[in-house]
Design brief:
Helix 1 packs across helix 5 and helix 3 crosses helix 4. This protein has a single domain, classed as Pyruvate-ferredoxin Oxidoreductase, domain 3. The protein is about 35% helix and about 20% strand. The longest helix is centred in the first third of the chain and has 14 residues.
Length: about 180
């Protein structure tokens, strides 16, 4: 079982990232749970999303002690770093989070995702760059699965963004 917590501000694609991982798990025949949580402000307010992917039955949808933390903002790492399991992995947007992780018993990966998104004409897709790096470091699903999940997860009204999302994931895979 893998517990993933994705955290940051509303509008950063946190809930989309969680749905994407849940769909990837379903595509690979796993049991999945997706539980979004956000403040009343939505865009700009705090948001996080728990995703659990398992070969067995999932007892609780809350990733209280995640194996994987994807933190997009300083408040997110401040709030959730201590909850990551020993031996876990943390993926931080180093464009927005200036400090290093304090934990020595978990691996931290620093990805300048916001800068990479801007530099590669993928503005707004820093979440997909971090997703690519996370997939590379955890093998939570295959590249083919995540691309298929993008096609299933992007809403019909935004189908023109499928290739841009895939491009951003590939940038993350190269980091």
């Amino acid at each position: 079982m893998k517990q993933i917590l994705i955290a940051g501000f509303g509008g950063q694609g946190i809930l989309f990232s969680g749905k994407l991982l849940a769909n990837a798990g379903l595509i690979e025949g796993k049991n999945v749970s997706w539980l979004p949580s956000y403040g009343p402000e939505m865009r700009g307010g705090t948001a996080n999303c728990s995703v659990i992917i398992s070969d067995t039955t999932i007892g609780s949808p809350i990733a209280g002690n995640p194996d994987i933390l994807m933190a997009y903002t300083l408040p997110a790492i401040d709030k959730f770093e201590d909850k990551v399991q020993a031996g876990g992995k943390m993926f931080l947007d180093s464009s927005l989070i200036e400090r290093k992780a304090e934990r020595k018993d978990a691996d931290a990966f620093y990805v300048p995702a916001t800068k990479l998104a801007f530099d590669n004409e993928c503005s707004g897709l820093m979440n997909m760059i971090i997703m690519g790096k996370m997939i590379k470091e955890t093998n939570i699903c295959s590249e083919e699965t995540i691309y298929e999940a993008v096609k299933k997860t992007v809403p019909e009204s935004k189908k023109n963004l499928i290739e841009l999302n895939i491009k951003a994931i590939k940038i993350g895979l190269e980091q």
